[in-house]
Amino acid sequence: MSDVQQTFSTASVASLDSPQAYIEETPIWRDGTDVDSSILTGMQWRIWWLACAGKFFEGMVVFMTGIALPLIGREFKLTAVEHGLVSSAILFGILIGATALGGLADRFGRRAMFIVEMALFIAFLLVLSIAPNLSITLIALFGVGLALGCDYPTAHMVISENIPARARGRMVLGAFSFQAVGALSGTGLAFLTLTWFPDPEAWRWMYLTAVPPALLILAGRFFVPESSNWLIVRGRVAEAETALLRLLNRHPRYPSEITLKAEAAGSPHAHKVKWSRFLTDRKLRKETIFASVPWFLQDLGTYGIGIFTPVILASSIGNKREHAQALSDLVYNDLLAAKGAALIDVLLIVGIVFAVMFTDRIGRVRLQVIGFIGCAVGLAIAASGNHAGPGWDVPLIFAGFMLFNFMTNMGPNAQTYLIAGEVFPVAYRGTGAGLAASFAKIGAVLTAFLFPILLKDLGTDVLLAGLVATSLLGAVVTWVYRIETRGAGLG
After folding, report:
1. Half-sphere exposure (CA, 13 Å, Cβ side) for 67?
2. Is the overall model pTM greater than 0.90, yes or no?
3. Most-buried pick from 111, 245, 296, 371 (CB within 10 A)?
4. Considering only the top CATH level, what class is 42-249+259-480?
């Protein structure tokens, strides 16, 4: 064998007395050279894939709503206000679920809520598929959002607390990228459903397509260990050691045993979060502002443009059939919008790929600032399309929305999610990240509810100009309250 044969017998971490120290440990070569990349176990990859699913389903059902909305509107004869309620119901559920359920991960554990959220997601999708009226539809959409809201802090924590810091940025954002994959898949599935079942109730089948894969994900989540970082904070040392052994199960076996220092453990009552600290503690207050306000500002644009891209495109592209009364006209317009939205949504995936590549090189703060500025430029280009001459209007609208989608996923849409799960201390991480996500979703709910009303009353120019301003404000707030979390330990 070569003199540089790889071995696990010598640790590259000096003191192994905490869960994070064991997780950070990498093998070294026989000549003493450190391995400069993380080697993940099968269980770490399993956790990552199961967390990816939550972001996939979020992108799928939220962006699918833009295609389903006209059909729901026809079936229940919705007014403009009721359209706003339908489009914002999932987002309002996310707003509540991120704090109300996501915060429970600090009390009952990351794994427990990881399971509960998927069970709730499936249950409410089934209710949605048979909803007999608008009230039940709104309750079901809210319930779906409630489950997805829980996933915001929980999915981040099950990844970030179980993998090495050097891989955390790209792994968390890699999972987050499945939101973009879900958005594109949701648009594609909606298109296929409309093609195969061009009837008023096609929207029910759209949401029902998520149930079979969700059942598989639910089953898989029963077979992952609890976060050892959370267990040690709760003072459950023996359980933390057992969970770490499951997490770090390798062939050949290393480590063969794990011993954590009991004196480093926290209190069994560490889950008692003091909400007043988010206001009175200067450091925690800055972390909360940094995690919450830019996320709120980017959600105004991301969900407004994301959900209503089909509506804006259908009203901007000249092939739309005006005054659609017949079902065939409605389906035609919906298919037309779905095609354009799918093309634009591809840039969401391209953007997140760039985020994964550069977040650990350039840093979270710089990418977020660059992304906010790029979003403003993209929206300004799209707005200019309404005033361009013949032949330039449609290309400018498409170019602007595509630049926006690329920049938001490379920058604020990805980085705000990543930062919120990194910036808070362990005992407050679930609650803090959930609080940030909930505050952000206030922006998403406001946008989703008001967009159909304001689009009708003010037009696209005014709305896009407002979103340009909020994007620029997001860049300013990010820079003023910046806390760079790249490479920071989470143990």
Report:
1. 38
2. no
3. 371
4. mainly alpha
